[in-house]
Amino acid sequence: MSRLQVSGRAFAHIANFYPEIAAFRRDLHVHPELGFEEVYTGARVHEALKACGVDEVHTGIGKTGLVAVIRGRSTASKRMIGLRADMDALPMKEDNDFAWRSAKSGLMHGCGHDGHTAMLVGAARYLAETRNFDGTAVLIFQPGEEGYAGARVMIEDGLLDSFPVQSVYAMHNWPAMPVGTIGINSGAMMAAADRITIEVTGKGGHGAHAYFTVDPVLVSAHIITAVQSIVSRNVRPIDSAVISICAVQAGDLGAMSVVPGKAVMVGTVRTFSAQVQAMVEQRLGELCSSVAAGFGATAKVTFERIYPATVNTVAEALFAGDVAQSLVGVANVERQMEPSMGAEDFSFMLQKKPGAYLRIGQDAKGGAFLHNSRYDFNDEILPLGAALHAGLVEQGMPLADAVRTQAPIKESVNSDVHQKAASSSAH
Hints:
Elements: E1 6-7, H1 9-15, H2 18-30, H3 39-52, E2 56-61, E3 65-71, E4 80-86, H4 113-130, E5 136-142, H5 150-156, H6 159-162, E6 167-174, E7 182-183, E8 188-190, E9 192-201, E10 205-206, H7 216-226, H8 228-233, E11 241-250, E12 258-259, E13 262-271, H9 274-294, E14 298-307, E15 310-311, H10 314-328, E16 333-334, H11 346-352, E17 355-361, H12 382-396, E18 412-413, H13 416-424
Helix pairs in contact: 1-12, 2-4, 2-13, 3-4, 4-12, 7-9, 10-12
């Protein structure tokens, strides 16, 4: 196992209660819940936050969302920083066999949101116990990230009106990165995710007399091939886009000689630029209609914009990188992190407020990446993630020297501290 070398008072403090946050994370893993159904998860978070001694806990924001408020030793600056963690699980079967595997058939924390929640709870405890900042920390426990746009729902429910943060931050574990590393860039981190539905209407008939039909299956095949030309011939090589037709439904597998009258395709479009996104939407409509018309059929394209691109603001990304560097050192912070074509609804918060989205390395245990049935969050990084959250607050809203009760110190703790503690924690 990698040795995790981390500097700073926050990490040293949080490492002392690592067994508790690891046990909390594993309890959430046992009890996964889908978006807007996080009743057990929310109750456990609420209970933990109250035990941490936070100043306020607000529930029911965005249905099952929670917000904790922690005031610093001083609030003279009037500053307010938001930290966000997602809470929901995925509708997938877990194939792990450890003691904390999912107890719910067909549900699994396959993306590490249990770990994200535990890291933010760990940060809440540290911040409430120390309060070494001037301002207010707003900790956002968000429901429904996995396709439910929970961030948007919380915003529509008044999140940013009730808690007018100046900036907001979030992080996601990344199995492709080593433990002890953190990644960020000063622009797009995740792509926009759009859903496309293409309905092709032709004329059904007997497969033996196909000349009497307008075959929507044949038309669909040509459309599937043709739409790939949008990326190769309409998108500039220095831009990025992906168009994937992921499912096709037509006819009946039990009717081998029946040409259906209709075919439906669904897929996804991923882009970083709003201009490229709009162009792809326009070209899909034009190309599908034209291809269908060439065969005597019609095609209707429905383009649903699901999540916008997750784009960091420059100043906040540079600041977050500095905070990360203060913890793990310059060599372990990737400041030009390659964007992912995956999507993230933290993008809705970044459309409203400056902020940054980071990746925290956790190694792929057993080679399992996100959304894999054998994935598990690596508990080794819990104190680092919590300390990173805490650092964004402490360094983003620093206390004046006269208010500090003690001079800052630099400590280094290796992973053995919490590796040993993990073996004794109850699950």
